[in-house]
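ok so I'm stuck.
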Amino acid sequence: MNLDFKIFEAINQFAGHNNILDQSVVFFTKYGPLLFGLFFVWLWFTKHGNRAENRKIVLFAFTIAVVTIGIDKVIEMSFFRSRPFVNHDVTMLVDKLDSDPSFPSNHTAGSFALALALFWKRRKMGAVLLVFAGLMALSRIFVGVHYPTDVLTGAFIALVVAFLIIWQRRLIEPLFNWIIRLFTRRGSHAV
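replied:
not stuck anymore, here's the structure
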């Protein structure tokens, strides 16, 4: 038995024993990505803080998430890894996705991509989102659909992509500034 599965078992063993905990984790693992997305929709439209800066964060977050998930998909097509429940007896709390690859975790990658983009400019809010991204990673193991290395790899890919895009931001920032100006003009004409 490898270390990856031992850590998986150490987390998954708590599933199925407390209905409130189980339902909370299932809700978060299913709807967490939607909650992350709604936060960034709010950030785009809020008048709290610098509106142009908020929108730039949203555009960076979207870009980092899309590139991260794209890399995940390439890895999934190149290296198929079965979900834990296919090869092991595990406690499942969500529907089985037999044909879906386990490696890497898209939920984890996407949530870390968004959280890292926010953390870059807004440390406090970003730190909160990073905690939620970590909880997303744990939830995927808890419900029985990912191994620890699946979620760690998803988070690592998000970290590398976020670093590279932020490091090379001068290449795409002019496009983002143009998009923000376009939306700002449209918004002022609509009022």
